[in-house]
Structures
1.
Amino acid sequence: MDCDNGISNKSGNRPFQDVLKARLSRRNVLAKGMILSAAGFATALVGNKALVQAASATTGQEASTTSTVGSGATIAQAGGLVNFESVAIANGSGPVPTISEDYEYQVLIPWGSTLDGSAGGYGGDPNTRPTAEEQKNLIGIGHDGMWLFPIGDGNDHGMLAINHEFGVNTHVLGKPDPTSLEDVRLSQHAHGVSVIEIKKIGGKWQPVKSNNARRIHVNTDVTFSGPAAGHPLLDNPAGNSPQGTVNNCAYGKTPWGTYLTCEENFHGYFGDATGTWTPTDAQDRYGFSTDGFGYGWQNFDPRFDLSNSDYVNENHRFGWVVEIDPMDATQTPVKRTAMGRFKHEGAEITVGRGGRVVAYMGDDERFDYIYKFVSESNWRSMRARGISPLDRGKLYVAKFNDDGTGEWLELTIDNPILSAQFSNQGELLVNTRLAADTLGATPMDRPEWATVSDFNGKVYFALTNNSQRTMPDAPNPLAPNPDGHILEIDDNARFTGTTFKWDIFILAQDTRGTEGVFTDPDGMWADPDGRLFIETDGGQPDGLNNQLLVVDISTGEIRRLFTGVFEDEITGLTVTPDRRTLFINTQHPGDGDPTVTNFPANQGSGKVPRDSTIVIRRKDGGIVGS
Ligand code: FEO
Ligand code: CA
Ligand code: CA
């Protein structure tokens, strides 16, 4: 979701003394490596190097040598990691997807599909919608982060956990506003998570009957764990037990086989039904407003009415990382409060020094922060003692210095500055953003996905854009920054330390004018060979639809593997263990308007376009991205 909404960070954190000077010196270093692209060749600026991919567009011959061009630039060697035929800019837009000629795709689980692949469900008839009761047991809308949990070797069978981030009323309800509680329930049931069992049968992936398939939505029972569990700020006078997850954006996966769904723009589902609500400072900081995103839930469901004193703390129950067991449909989803409350994009987990689990997390709003969580000790020993590694540990927020270093600032009540502000760790965590403001975290250009590369041990963070930045700083060097960029973080001490080094990996604007052009990086995944998959969410240059690109991290070579349909977003990414099958999503195709696209139904059918998973394979059965 390209949520380029208001600015709620008024902390004024600007930790750089000489930001313009820093920006210019850093940009000069980068600019040295810039070279002109040869016709039809992708040029990318990566780190301090620019590279030209000497492709076969004009000669039919792959270049076979590496040479230095200008200062620090090289021509990428052919036979590298990214060898597929790129989707040309000229072919990258339309009402149906386009894929590299070396690849093929199939559509899986459009919104409204049954969970077990049986007939029925909602097929996109513009004159009807599912009932709320039906939607409870159908695939939701707003396909986003997901992961495939293997069954057997996992290469043709697994449990797919997939987020349903959002679906506007015109798409889900077929009208701009709900007019009944039934409408609100339909909307609520279309959100959340699906867990389904999928299998490759006759060369096609499809859902199958499963004891562990389930829908988790806004009215599903959930529980809290960690330092804020049981805190009065998570209780309501109404006494209602915790329910639901919403605006499930990106994901995480734990070494012990569970799925993490991350609650992003939760504030947009609340509103003021009576015109009597006055925001607290904290509510203001989290962006709550009288109408939210216009879902209108507050008018029929008191939980989402900010003015209803019986539900005064309901808003605190969202904005968390939620753990789901994809192999046990009876498990109650757990909100892991130790990981903080903010507009969680995702939770990229790796295992660091001492077997600790480390989660990298973005708070996607203009001028919000990058966080990491480090478990107290070895995850295996914690679990052996019956303790979740996600319940005990340290939560940090990032402060970037202009010299390419940075610090992880711990958000702990043991810090006197924070104990002067909050009475206990639970209160601090409910108000994570406020604590991070106090410590002087660095405001970023909308942190989206993070991915840790097992190839080089670096952490990549997508900063999608920031139309309202007026003051550049070293890690956010463009003001404004309409195209976004990607940071590369070298997190010292095997991810568990309190200092780091960083660099700009790529400024999206530097791809303009090249065949590898993209803007608004959002979803990312680094494969173990050294490829970085980049998904975009925002108006793309040169008429392109949103896209999936693959970058060779070492050489900077970029190729375009897939483009979506008009007005969609490409997001979500998972692979089979053998990496011969890649799954991505098209979210909000045509913004739900059947006059724009009918995907995945045939064009001209008049069907409502439906968010779908796209299953991608190389025609020769090779590693995806190669
Ligand atoms: Fe849900 Fe920031 O994307
Ligand atoms: Ca986005
Ligand atoms: Ca996103």
2.
Amino acid sequence: MHFDVITLFPDMVLQAAKYGVTGKAISRGLVGLSVWNPRDYTLDKHRTVDDRPYGGGPGMVMKYQPLFDAVSAAQQTRHEPRCKIVCLSPQGTLINQALLTDVSDYEQLILVAGRYEGIDERFIASVCDEEWSLGDYVISGGELGALVVIDAITRLQAGVLGDEDSAKQDSHSDGLLDYPHFTRPEQLSVGKVPAVLLQGDHAQIKRWRLKQSLGRTWLRRPDMLEKKTLNTEQEKLLKEFKIEVDVK
Ligand code: 4FV
């Protein structure tokens, strides 16, 4: 997977992508990252990338041509058949694990990070395959969205996370919230580690963790449970959790 980010702040993206799992994956060549600044594709001596909005109103709008030429340059560098062009914006499809998993086997993802009030709609409509949103709020640019997408998809690439398992165990990967995690010390003034995790019975630990994931999803994100069909064992575990919660 190669990520190309179209951004007025290339260093912001390159710096942030240097850290942690993403940074290691890039240095190991497991994923690639290039940045393209639309200002480098402007045709006027003032290197203009934005202009006033037709119809008036506050702020500025990003111009079509510098973005078009920057995306073309990114495409021409790779000629990847399986390439998707995505614009990050509040008008987009809400990003979730399923959406990212669906594109995780592409060779190239071109991520367009807007700034100002937004981007000329003719660019989004004619050049972008999709629009994705981080969430129902407005931030100052698409770079953070692009970095979230890069981080989440990089974790799904083969060889990036230690044992293959860990990506699958990621919360949301099975449509459920994660179970609670504990580490040393066993005893704290604020509580102790659940006994089942100390007894070494891995079947019981697996069962307890699934029950916690089901229960926490039921308590905190019932919307996710509605999207999921539970098998009999999961139904049984959730029922147990509900009884235990009521008892408490
Ligand atoms: C955003 C979001 C977002 C809107 C105008 C950048 C800003 C400015 N991007 N998910 N929510 N973008 O608020 O992705 O250009």
